[in-house]
Amino acid sequence: MFNVPEWAEEPPAPAARAPPTPRARVGPAARAKGSSHQSLQATLKALQAEALPYQLPHQGGNDSNSDSDLGEEKRKKRKKASKEAPLKEENSKQPAVQRVKTKKEESKGSGAPKNGDLASVLPQNDPGFRRTTLGPVKDGNNTEPRLSRKQWRNRQKNKRRQKNKFLPPKPQSVAAPEEENPSGLTEKYEPELKAEEPGASLDRGGVLRAKMKQRLEGARFRFLNEQLYSVTSSAASHIFQEDPEAFELYHRGFQNQIKQWPLKPVDRIVKDLKQRPASLVVADFGCGDCRLASSVRNTVHCFDLAALDPRVTVCDMAQVPLKDESVDIAVFCLSLMGTNLSDFLKEANRVLKPGGMLKVAEVASRFVDMRGFLGALAQLGFKLVSKDLTNSYFYLLNFHKIGPPKAQGPLRGLALRPCLYKRR
Question: Where is the composition biased (Pro residues) (predicted)?
Answer without folding.
Answer: 11-22
